[in-house]
Amino acid sequence: MLWIPVTLIGALAQTGRNMAQAGLTRSLGTLGATQVRFLYGLPFALLFLGLTCLIGGVLPPVPSPRAVAVITLGGLAQIGATALMLATMERRSFAVSTAWLKTEPVLIAIGGALVLGDSLSAAQIAGVVIATAGVVLTGWRRGAASGIGPVLTGLAAAAGFGLSAIAFRAGILALGDGGFFLRSMTALVLSLASQVVLLALWLRLFRPGSMTATLGQWRGSLAAGLLGAFGSAMWFTAFSLATAAQVRTLALVEVLLAAALGWAMRGERPSGRSLAGMAVIVAGVGVLLLASQGGS
Questions:
Q1: CA 106/CA 250 separation, integer angstroms
Q2: pTM of the full predicted structure?
Q3: What angle, 0 to 180 degrees and rounded to 10, lies between the N-to-C axes of helices 272-293 and 253-266?
Q4: Count of other CB atoms within 10 angstroms of residue 198
Q5: How many angstroms separate the CA atoms of 247 and 127, rounded?
Q6: Domain map of the chain by residue range?
Q7: Are 252 and 285 spatial neighbours (Cβ–Cβ below 8 Å)?
Q8: Using one digit for the tens of pLDDT, what is the confidence trace for 69-127?
Q9: At what angle do helices 94-101 and 148-175 cross, to 10 degrees?
């Protein structure tokens, strides 16, 4: 059951990273601010891996070509999903994109079962569905833009994020040698390195100057990099201990954390619909945890 506190810590760190990145979007642009997560997170990931090896007196596992390919696929899927998410929001469909993006745990449950053979009990599946429905209820707003386009891009983004979670878990399992934390940190370094290279090439070709601007904002980017790397380290550790669907469903507590911080720091009081949705999220997560604890 270690995956439960690890996932909750990851959710808290990711919420903090999102807040740290918020001020960088205006000066760096969306993709530039996204690169901050990878570029400034990689040194910290290398530090985590180095400390793990030093304390344990071990060397990192030598990744097989399959492990490298799968982890790189996960990194590419994560970048692509982010682009699709932004494309959905650019069509003035933020509410719709939020609702459809949060179908990710259901898609992960299906994909994990088909690709990795990760099985969930009926009670665990019920928890996934209930929690996801709660997020949809929280994010949905009357008067949201309609049309099939935002729905399709939103679902595609959710599928991309789901694919990245499944690929990361598959990559960690494919590393084989070493304890779960050593394999998780190795996979984290591989994923961040591939994402830095891929996104740097994209920025160089299509957004000249963005990479230089990102390097110039190093003072404000270090906090985002540290929190992002630490949160990802927790996600990867959780992926090594439980199915991707379980981890990403519990991670929906990010919605509750974001709402609490928004209320405390910005006075953004949640609506009645949002509060009802949060109650459903809590119920779904509760069902999932009880089912997981019982081993059913």
A1: 12
A2: 0.79
A3: 140
A4: 16
A5: 12
A6: 3-293
A7: yes
A8: 999 999 999 888 877 766 665 554 444 455 566 667 777 777 777 777 777 788 888 88
A9: 40
Q: Which residues contact 150 (CB under 8 A, 6 or more apart)?
A: 88, 91, 93, 96, 97, 100
Question: Who's near 158: CB < 8 A, 6+ residues apart?
Answer: 81, 100, 101, 102, 103, 104, 107
Contacts of 92 (CB under 8 A, 6+ apart): 145
Burial of residue 267 (CB within 10 Å: 0-12, 13-18, 19+) is exposed
Q: Report yes or no: 78 and 164 within 8 Å, Cβ to Cβ.
A: yes
Query: Each residue of 115-128: pLDDT tens digit?
Result: 777 777 888 888 88
Query: What distances in angstroms separate CA 57 from CA 8, 49, 182, 237, one per listed residue?
Result: 28, 12, 11, 19
